[in-house]
Amino acid sequence: MxxxxxFIMTLADQLREVCSSQQAAEQEAxxxxxxxxxxxxxxxxxxxxxxxxxxxxxxxxxxxxxxVTERKPLQYLLGWVPFAGLTIxxxxxxxxxxxxxxxxxxxxxxxxxxxxxxxxxxxDLCTGSGCxxxxxxxxxxxxxxxxxxxNPHAVxxxxxxxxxxxxxxxxxxxxxxxQVLANESPFDLIVxxxxxxxxxxxxxxxxxxxxxxxxxxxxxxxxxxxxYQRIIxxxxxxxxxxxxxxxxxxxxxxxxxxxxxxAIVAMLHEQGFDRVAVHRDLQGKExxxxxx
Length: 292
What we know:
The chain is α/β, with parallel strands linked by helices and 292 residues long.
């Protein structure tokens, strides 16, 4: 007799080629089955009759084939990722939000709790899917948040995600970093997860990344430091000197860091940021830098 467990194991055996373990392959297969059927795993297992139709099976097999033969990331196959309590739609080639980015954003939200009722002005540079800007807009409903990206497709996706999550205090604009902000009032906070991978590091990335995600959102010249240099060089021109974050000794500039955080810290010191801290993620890696 055909069972859902047997079918999932069949899919997992195929997925094993692109997954780090059998357990990971089975998890991916279950996520796909939940997505296609619209039912949670618990319910799929609980029903007495086989819960998948032939159409479901065909769709699942197509997803597995794309995953294995074309290395399409699972997130793109499912069409969304959770991020800081939000549902973020993802579409190739816009960068998929990573758990390590979510980690520092959640940390920042915790730091901002004492002032989250204040009318903060926040800008997120290189916003991509909009996940960082949207998470901050949700956590700080009195804030005005602007997300900036040079890719019009990213801006359109971020706008869609704002609508999907019913957030109205965030705006997304196409721009080369600060270019369109010249006439804006100063900001309380600048955040960014900029491109920081070197060309050599890019060549060593998994096929899923190189084949599907936009290299412009990943790779930077000058050993990964080019975009940091531009962000940091102009940051003080766009930050207010006496806002509520200054008064409460809270970060005014937060950057996800690459493999050379010391170089970023040096850039910050050169531009007059004298209180700079490097923070490690749960894996012990130096992941983000906060400057007051």
